[in-house]
Automatic annotation (TrEMBL):
This is Bacillithiol system redox-active protein YtxJ. InterPro entries: BrxC (IPR022551), Thioredoxin-like_sf (IPR036249). Gene3D superfamilies: Glutaredoxin. It holds the Pfam family BrxC. It comes from the Bacteria. NCBIfam families: B_thiol_YtxJ. Signal peptide: none annotated.
Length: 110
């Protein structure tokens, strides 16, 4: 299930709580971002056991900037990031965010 986060505190809690999760940086005004969001939502619905979160960059600019700075990932929108063990392990942006690319990035459970 897709959940929205808005604050640095919520994100920090996720890093501490979840072994792995996806995060989508989504622009509310960009048609490419809307297409990526639709793919992300489809992925989320098909993989309910995988935590999926998103932030709206217009609503959560400080959080978006914090992620870019903390993890040295150039900000893009839309941008999907897979976090595993507290750090990014995969990312994609724009048209590369597809249900298929997200599914292929799923970490193997040991």
């Amino acid at each position: 299930m897709l959940k929205k986060i808005d604050s640095i505190e919520e994100f920090t809690e996720l890093l501490n709580k979840e072994n792995s999760f996806y995060l989508l940086k989504h622009s509310l005004t960009c048609p490419i971002s809307q297409a990526a969001y639709n793919e992300y939502e489809k992925f989320s619905n098909e993989h309910e056991n995988i935590p999926t979160y998103y932030l709206a960059v217009q609503d959560s600019r400080p959080l978006s900037n914090e992620i870019a700075e903390q993890f040295q990932i150039k900000h893009e929108s839309p941008q999907a990031i897979l976090f595993a063990n507290g750090k990014p392990s995969w990312s994609a942006s724009h048209w590369k965010i597809t249900n298929r690319s997200l599914a292929q990035a799923i970490p193997v459970q040991e």
